[in-house]
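Can you give me the bound-state structure? Components:
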Amino acid sequence: MKKMTVLLLILLLAFSSSVLVAQEQEPVTVTFWSHTHPPMVDLNEQLIAEYMELNPHVTIEYQVIPNNLFFETMLVSTSTGVGPDVMNMGNAQLVSDYLPRGLVAELDVEALGFESLDDLLATYVPNALSGAMVDGSYYGLPSEINTDMLAIYTPDLVEAGYPEDWAPTTWDELGEVAGELSRFDEDGNQTHRGFDLVYLHAGWFSNQFQTLAIQTGCTYYNDDLTESTINSPECVAAAQIWHDMIFEYQAANPSLSSRESTVPLQDYIDGTVTMTFIQPWGMELVRQGDPERWENTRLVALPQVDPENPSNKINAYYWAVNSGSEVQEEAWKFIAFMASYPGRWLVDVNFLQGNVGMDELPEAADFPYADQWMVGLDSGDFFQLYPAANETHEALRVALENILFNNTDIQSTLDNLKAELDFILQ
Amino acid sequence: MANRTDRLSAQRISARTILQSRLFTYRTRQQVWGLLFALPAVTLFAVFAIYPIIQTFYISFFDYDLVNTPDYVGMGNYETIFDSPIFINSIRFTFVYAFGTYIPTLILALILALTLNARLPFRGFWRMMNFIPVVISWVVVSVVWKLMFHRNGLFNAGLDSLGLMTPDWLLSTNYAPFAIIIPSIWKELGFYMVIFLAGLQNIPNVYYEASKIDGASSLQSFRFITVPLLRPTIALAIVISLIEGLKVFIPPFVMTQGGPAGTTRVMALIIYQTAFANGRFGRASAMAVILFLIILSITLIQNRLYGTRRDIY
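Here's the bound-state model for the whole set.
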């Protein structure tokens, strides 16, 4: 009888605790969408599996969206209420398209595991969250923060008679040397480019133009966003740099570029271009694409319009939570988990996330050019925030294609672009 | 009393019989069954076609981003889009595409139909070969032709082997429109060939026999018999082709994304971009209404010009 009573009590306790556990851990599904960057996708999948193992009641449904359809897919789905709970979005779109529509939720500091916003901010370098901040409110944690360096395939340089440690300090210097590295066939058709950029979707045109624009002082709009300033002398100067690489130095040639590749640095990996812009995430892409090419790649600081006063552009992607999500707290917890492995992001994907003390991480020792990247981030700044990013980028792409493909007059092309950007502001 | 009751009862029976007979005649029953069978398709059409069209008209008068409450702007969207050089250029290129594609297509299709209407060896095989592109999806066609038009693609390889110029088709504002039009002609040719073949086969042979007896040449037969009798078919082909041309979306979307420098941006593409990339649904709806009105106007004009001509025979 006594044994039976004890057994019954044990069973009762076990049942009660299982009920309590079941009540505490109600099944939750969190949807998460990102763009297509193979190393990032791999690590996302690993971390998702780990998170679900640690949190059996949580299911993370992960979807990868093709890059060329990413922005419209995200905007429409989020606007119509069928978007993901967690999104990974560029800072320009986040601030210009999502925030004005009220589509993203403000940081849930508590769900992220902090007592206060100041505590959270203290764990990041000063600029890290600025790209997702409006009027003092923050809307995302950085999944990657980027600045630009120049990637050089050294054997081409040496073959042309330049020292292995050559690095351009000005754009003219880059153009002249890159022009010498370009190769042409007997009919005069260019077969190899000494330097070139990427000619993919509109976001790429804008991203790279901003790298030049931040050095010349160009902005897309005036400070109160009432008028476009894209036809200013500073913007003409930025466009002139890119234009000259093609038409003056014959270093670049858009017609040789791959405009379909999922991997943005495919041309560099394939060896059809000697020098190009690269961001931290690009290193792993090159290494995976062609380890030999990576072994012979050297990264140096970008040339500068004013070498005495260098400027660097920062851009970032953020993990953000859909304001329409019904599982916001769980979504922020998931983001906190994803953001808690800066070392793995460094080594596996080469993503910088702007954490304080990142250079002291054990993984930082294996992170190529860690010091140089940190210098770029510390001295860099986000480009001007502006409305209607997608629309602005598309209009800019059209204008740049005219300048870069058709050699149209830069000033008049940007004058026309100004009319279009003013129209966007209406 | 019994007689009055009987009379009333008989009247009620008579009225009911008349009513029943009017409601449930054979013809009425047939009509009801017909409606019932058509109801699912009509419902689907109403939900997925009529309702969105009405909604588009409605939304065109609002500033709407799918998220916030639509803000009534009256004709504001229409005024705005006609101030947009991008939209005006898209109208221009849409017509360039429509005429540039379908004029050659119809001419070539007629020539093909005339050729394949004659007794040729393996006539069925040639007809089939010309029709195959019609059944391939537009996306597949666009992707393959995009590769062919690459600077180092098949097209330039062929031109180079003939010692001809090899332009950068997809990056040149001069050649990109051709890169869109050429595969469209290739794909559409078979469809209109079949339409013309059907028209040709409906022309009674007795006219040709009579013309031969009268000593008419082939050209005269074509001009005075074939063309007039094929006129309704030609009118139909023109209407269909113009509508298709003005609605084009996939080739510029897949091959050039409207570039380079916006030179191949058709109206449907700019509607798509305005709506789904820029989130301006009111403005995009206004553009869609304009496209609809353009197509409707052209169709009405064509119907007026070609109409039903009873004087052909």
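A couple of observations. Strands of chain B lie at 62-63, 71-72. Chain B has two domains: 2-45, 76-306.
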